[in-house]
Fold this sequence. Notes:
- The protein is mainly alpha-helical.
- The protein has a single domain (about 1-145), classed as Serine Threonine Protein Phosphatase 5, Tetratricopeptide repeat (Alpha Horseshoe), CATH 1.25.40.
- It has helices at about 1-30, 35-50, 55-70, 75-95, 100-110, 120-130, 140-145.
- Mean pLDDT is about 90; it is low at about 5-20.
Amino acid sequence: MNKFLLTIVLFLMFNDVFCLDLVNVRMNYEKAVRDEKICRSMLDELEHNSNSVIHQAYLGAYQAIWANHVMNPFSKINTFNAGKKNIEQAIKVDPNNIELRYLRLSIQKNCPAFLAYNKDIEADTLFIKKHSDSVLDETLKQMCKKII
């Protein structure tokens, strides 16, 4: 019986760490556009801990944002394209995940038109409007409200 209780306690502890990690990633998302240090920190964390499609999509979004902080034009494009690829791969795995669609929409709405990464703006906006009532996390809910 003690092993059973220990297993439950450990599961809850690790599950809580995972949730706290995601809370931190969400809370720093908008700040990363203006703050290079926050963006770099989140990238470092996500590059080593992309253990879910949500983390993979955030990695992609932070990579796309990081392109704003890079000076070399080739690095900008390469970084942005790596981010775009991570976002699209995550959405391919879980296309009905509102958080993934939010991330893609936020990047597509804010990236320069010459990058031609804007074909899903309308579909993602409609998807988020339709499903935003089902979002339980308050931070994510507010992020979705802001984008639409």
